[in-house]
Amino acid sequence: LFKLSFLTKTLSGRLRLYQPPLISIVKRHFAFATPEEAAAERRKRKRRLRLDPPLAALRHQQPQQPRPSPSPSPQNPNAPKIPEPVSVLTGSRLNLHNRILKLIRENDLEEAALYTRHSIYSNCKPTIYTCNSVLAAQLRQSKYAELLSLHRFITQAGVAANVVTYNILLTVYLDCRKPDLALEQYKQLITDAPFNPSRTTYRILIKGLVGNQQIEKALEIKDDMEAKGFKSDPTVYSYLMSGQAKNSNAEGVFELHEELKKKTGMDEIFDGVIYGNLMKGYFLKGMEAEAMECYKRAVGEASEGSQIKMSSVAYNYILEALSKNGKLDEALKLFESMKNKHDPPRRLCVNLGSYNVIVEGYCGEKRFLEAIEVFNGMGEKRCVPDTLSYNVLIDELCNNNHLALAEELYKNMADKKVSPDEYTFVTLMDTCFRENRPGDASAYFKTMVESKLRPNLGVYKRLMEGLVEVGEVDEAKSFFELMVPKLRMDDAAYKFIIGSLFEAGRHEEVVKIVDGMLREDPNDFTEDVEAFVRERLRKIGKEDEVDKIKVEIEREKAEAAAKIAEEAERAKASARAAVASLLPSKLVG
């Protein structure tokens, strides 16, 4: 018994020795006494999940809110638009482009411009390339007013211009002798346009400034061009050298030539475009031998194997230098050589300018029949004369008493589909007056107006003076009535026609003119004109005619105002009667 109790105590002691500590005992909170309780708890939990999903599931299903991005800065509505790339010229817009090009080829520029305008607000908007095609066609025919009108329209319609559009505008302003507007347009291109000017832009601007006798400004633009990273352009230097030669500044020609060689780092310029103007500089200095040596180096015998590249423009400069310095025979030999070498499209040696230079050379030596023969032979090399070509030859013929030949050329313009301009008609009109043909002179002026050309006030005055000088006062008065709505007359124009009518003893017509001036635009009847009219009326005892006209006009104005007031009162009474007829009689009573 003692041994058994000892073993029991020992065993219990050992069991207590290996018993884990109390802190390691983990309570099971999810234990259930029976499986039924566990199943009931699972069902309860599922119901709770269906009614109220867990937060993790909510976070998973909730769409992620985008991070607030910084609000973009509002775009400037006045910022220039970026022009469309040429890749947009596809599909229906390409079809529209081709239809308008077809109208241009058919010389129906009015319809082409109208079609472009109508398409602007359609589902198929023309591209800037289509608009530029129409503008360029109008420029080729010197339709400057129509061109500027179309450009204004497409600009207001939001068609973004490209560099070609700016080049066309620069050409227009420079051709119209508006270099200030051209420089303003260039400044706008530099500061506002989202693109840079091209080399062609600078060529157009510098050539136009030289043609407008602004050589110093052209030199500044040349420096600006090179400052913007463009390489020294021999074509630009040729324009500047030509301008210096026209101003008889031979030293300026040589300085530009040396500057070009220095900037290109070459002892000899291989672009032949400068050699004609370099020859002009030598001729100005009386250095004929050096000029002819330069000629031989460029196109003569010494040019065999030379690296100098000659274009049609380069040839034309040399032709001009020869023909205007007593070397017409050499110019004619070169011209024949150019025609023989001309092999388009691989080699272009002759263009319209080549024929113009030779025609001017013949005219300078009074060889007009040969000039006309060369002029008529342009078609052999597929050259088509333009309005300027006709004007040059017509002017030379008229100034040398060959009006009949000039009129034949004028009639030939219609066959060549070349439109005469104001200069053409004015030249023929002035020559007809000199040849004592006032009827033909007035006919040319009338044709000019009917052709929708715009003669200026100086041309109108020459017409009036020519007609009055030969006693055609009635004809002069008819042209006065025709041009009053079209021209802004000055005091001298009014005084001339009024004085002519007084000299013819037709003061009644003067009174009608004064009456029309006071009714249409009283500002035209200035104090100077009024004093002139009163003085002439006083000489014939009719000095009160002007006062009578003014009193009559004031009376008519008063009667018109009274009539308007009477009609307004009548309208109010009619409105009151209409309202009264709609209301019940008791309310009216």
TrEMBL record:
Q: Which GO terms describe its biological process?
A: seed development
InterPro entries for this protein: PPR_domain-containing, PPR_rpt, TPR-like_helical_dom_sf
Where the PPR repeats fall, as residue ranges, is 198-232, 311-345, 351-385, 386-420, 421-455
User: PROSITE patterns, from UniProt?
Assistant: PPR
What keywords were assigned to this record? Coiled coil, Repeat
- Key word Metal-binding present: no
Q: Where is the composition biased (Pro residues)?
A: 65-83
According to the UniProt entry, the coiled-coil residues are: 539-578
Query: Is this entry keyworded Manganese?
Result: no
Pfam family, any one:
PPR_2
Q: Which domain of life is it from?
A: Eukaryota
Annotated region Disordered: the residues are 56-84
Which SUPFAM superfamilies does this one have?
HCP-like (SSF81901)
> How is this protein named in the record?
Pentacotripeptide-repeat region of PRORP domain-containing protein
Species of provenance: Genlisea aurea
